[in-house]
Amino acid sequence: MARDPTVKQVLQSYQRYWPLGCDQWSLPDQLNDGEFRNGMNVACRGGIIQTRPGTKTLYCLPEGRRQGETLFTPAGGVAHQAVAIAGSVYVARAPFKEWSQLDNIQFSSSSRFVCFTECLKSTDYDETGVLYFLEQPYKVLMMQDGRTRAAFWDGSTNGHSNPTPTGCVCSSLSVGVGLE
Q1: Tell me, what's the pLDDT at 32?
Q2: How far is residue 144's CA from residue 151's CA, in Å, rounded to a whole number?
Q3: Which of 44, 87, 139, 165 is deepest in the core (most CB within 10 A)?
Q4: Whether residue 46 is found in the same domain as residue 23
Q5: DSSP assignment letter at 56
Q6: From CA 7, how far away is CA 153, in angstroms rounded?
Q7: Is pLDDT above 50 for 175?
Q8: Count of alpha carbons within 13 Å of 175, Cβ hemisphere only?
Q9: Are residue 72 and residue 133 in the same domain, yes or no?
Q10: Helix, strand, or coil (residue 4)
Q11: Are residues 80 and 37 in the same domain?
C-alpha cells in the first residue's frame, strides 16, 4: 500500500501550529487545513499541540467506603471538607491534609450514602424544655443516612440530634368516642 505524499506535506506545514484543533467527527480526507484527526495523550491549546499535563492529588481521604462528602464553612470562617466513610465522619481544614474523626457521630456502615446540608440554627431549648430564639444564629452542618438519627456539626461540637428535647414534658391526650 503506497502512502499519500500529501500527508507528509500537511504534517510538515502544520507541525507546530494547528489553529482549528482536533476534529474526530470528520473523515480524514475531509479535514480542513489546520485540523488534525486524532491525538493520544495530547492537549491542543491555542493551536499548539502539547503533551497532556499530569495530574496532582489535592488530598487523600481516610480508608474505607465513601458514603458522601461536602464542603462546609463554620462560623470561624475556615473551609472544612467533611466526609462520611464506612459510617464515621471525618473533617479536615483547608488544605485538607490532616483528617480528624468526629467521635460523637456514628452512622450505619451499610448505608449507601450520607446526605449533608448546611442549616442556620436560630432556636434552642432551655433547661425546662422551653423553646427560645438565639440572639446570634449560626451555621450548622446536618447529616443523615436514612437509618440513624440525624447528626450535626457546627465547627466545634458534634453529635446526633435528640428528637425529644431534654426536660420536655410530653403528655398524651385520650380521645374516646362513645355511642349514646
Answers
A1: 84
A2: 6
A3: 87
A4: yes
A5: -
A6: 63
A7: no
A8: 0
A9: yes
A10: coil
A11: no
Q: H or E element: which one contains 9?
A: helix 5-13
Q: What percent of the chain has pLDDT over 90?
A: 47
Query: Against a cut of 0.70, is the pTM above it?
Result: no
Lowest mean pLDDT among 35-49, 113-127, 132-146: 35-49
pLDDT in tens, 16-68: 577 788 888 888 888 888 887 888 888 877 777 788 877 887 778 889 999 99
- CB within 8 Å of 123: residues ≥ 6 apart: 131, 132, 133, 134
Q: Determine the average pLDDT of the residues in 132-149.
A: 94
Burial profile 120-137: b = 16 or more Cβ within 10 angstroms, e = fewer: eeeeeeeeeeeeeeeeee
Three-state secondary structure call for residue 10: helix
Residue 143 in any domain: the answer is yes
Task: Give the pLDDT of residue 166.
Answer: 54
3-state helix, strand, coil in the chain (%, to 5): 5, 40, 55
Structural domain boundaries, residue 86: 66-160
Instruction: Count Cβ atoms below 10 Å from residue 88 Cβ, excluding itself.
Output: 18
Residue 38 grid cell: 486524532
Q: What is the mean pLDDT of the chain?
A: 82
Which triple of cell numbers denotes residue 111? 448505608
Is 37 a domain residue? yes
Residues 112 and 71 grouped into a single domain: yes
